[in-house]
Specification:
Length: about 210
């Protein structure tokens, strides 16, 4: 007799199905991460137990969440060749460097936790950023907005996994866990703000780079 699936496994399958109906595909690991973060957020905001938070997440609520998630993910142009995508965001070269460094740190998280899927995703993002930067002819790098949104989500996921207790990269001890997650989240917020900058002029760097 097969074991009964956990709430997270069952709901993540339902989320993937709902997103597929809306034209979007995500992995089971991504679906579970998204749902785990959503439940943790609900627990924090409403101060209820995990069991209560899961019970509150009804089928109707899951469908509504899938619809809002699809709108958000559609801005990332899933399935699109980002090298060929319109490059509308002027990214200062210093911001490119900070973004590359943040991706490298998030990749360390995927590597130390033996998450091959996340490692491949991160390497693809880093490679795309590098190729786009190599084609720039000034200190402002024209960058596709969806690439920045994907990078921001990737960093957010790495920060969330660290807060949930994932293994830390070599050289970081437990006392640095909150700080490391906070820096990744800061980078995600800064990159997302850059992506949404529009035509408001050259953006400033969101934080001063410091050695980690």
């Amino acid at each position: 007799m097969s074991p009964r699936p956990t709430w997270l496994a069952a709901r993540s399958a339902e989320l993937r199905t709902a997103l597929l109906d809306l034209g979007l595909t995500i992995t089971d690991a991504q679906a579970q991460t998204i749902l785990a973060d959503k439940i943790s957020e609900h627990m924090t905001l409403t101060r209820v137990s995990r069991r209560t938070a899961q019970r509150d997440f009804t089928e109707d609520r899951l469908l509504a969440f899938a619809q809002s998630l699809a709108v958000s993910l559609s801005d990332e142009a899933p399935g699109t060749d980002l090298i060929a995508f319109e490059r509308t965001i002027a990214m200062p070269i210093a911001a490119v460097g900070l973004t590359a460094a943040a991706l490298a740190e998030a990749l360390k998280v995927a590597h130390i936790n033996l998450d091959d899927t996340e490692a491949v995703t991160g390497l693809s993002l880093l490679s795309t950023l590098g190729m786009i930067t190599a084609e720039a002819h000034s200190s402002l790098v024209p960058t596709p907005r969806p690439l920045l949104l994907r990078i921001a989500r990737y960093l957010d996921a790495a920060a969330a996994s660290i807060l949930r207790g994932a293994n830390l990269p070599d050289g970081l001890d437990e006392t640095h866990r909150p700080y490391f997650a906070d820096i990744l989240a800061q980078d995600a917020d800064g990159i997302r703000a850059l992506a949404n900058n529009g035509d408001d002029g050259t953006p400033t760097l969101w934080r001063t780079p410091t050695p980690r």
